[in-house]
Amino acid sequence: MQSLGAMQHFDFNDPASYSYEQANMTIRDLGLGMDVVEQQYKRAVFNVVARNQDDHVKNISFLMDRSGAWRLSPAYDVAYSYNPSGSWTRDHQMSMGGKRNDFAHDDLMRFASNVGLKSNKAKQAIENIVGAVARWQEFAEQAGVEHSDVSRIEKTFRMNLLLK
């Protein structure tokens, strides 16, 4: 297993320097297909919508099999991490279209276009992800999250990204 940071010699301690576009260039460089580009797009959109702002270059990784073929690793360290006054989680660690915050629907669509994803697939991904995040209260209740935390966290989700 190699993280994006290790493969590209990116320092995760330098959060404003790296982007989701660079992650997708690495996917292309490794010869992985559009299904992997789409999967990474979905992960990036989820991070934006659900406020996983600890989305640095050590949290995207690749696995090599015995024959030397690479694949995207399963997602990991996917957790709510937003603190508007925090130095690390006030903004996303990786940028999308040059932005680390204040995302709009058009930003997600431009990112999809930049990585070669068709707009219908991007729109469907955004819709599915916003729909899943909308079930936050249900998932949080099942996990035993304190009600006060459920409400506080939910208020920060970017549910408006479904709208154009």
Keywords for this structure?
HipA_Ser/Thr_kinase; mainly alpha; kinase; HipA-like C-terminal domain-containing protein; 45% helix; HipA-like_C; 164 residues; globular
The sequence of SSEs as H and E is EHHHEEHHHH
Approximate shape: globular
Largest sheet, in brief, is: 3 strands, antiparallel
Structural class, by secondary structure, is mainly alpha
Care to describe what's here?
The longest helix has 17 residues, at 34-50. Strand 2 and strand 3 (70-72) form a beta hairpin. The protein has a three-stranded antiparallel sheet. The model has no long low-confidence stretch (mean pLDDT 96). It has helices spanning 4-8, 20-29, 34-50, 105-114, 119-133, 136-143, 147-154, and strands at 2-3, 61-64, 70-72. By secondary structure, it is mainly alpha-helical. The protein has seven helices and three strands. The chain has one domain (2-162).
In short:
With about 160 residues, the protein is mainly alpha-helical. It has seven helices and three strands; from the N terminus they run βαααββαααα.
